[in-house]
Amino acid sequence: MTDAPAEQPAADVASLSYEAARDELVQVVARLEQGAATLEESLALWERGEALARRCEEQLNGAKARLDAARAAAEES
Fold this sequence. Notes:
This protein has 77 residues and is mainly α. The chain has one domain (17-76): Helix Hairpins (Orthogonal Bundle). Helix content is 71%, strand content 0%. Helix 1 (18-34) runs antiparallel to helix 2. It is elongated and about 60 Å long.
């Protein structure tokens, strides 16, 4: 069985694909919105969510940079 999102180490976020990070972020947000977590659990979920959101943003920024480079190369040819 896998760990709950808040129980996984933050370091593993860097190895997640965009899709995996996004899907886990959706789960984290849903758990926070339920409001059933303790304060400590909520803080851990929030921190995990922040790390996941940063990972998604990094991946999206990287994809944008690749598209921009491809467009620039296409315009030069």
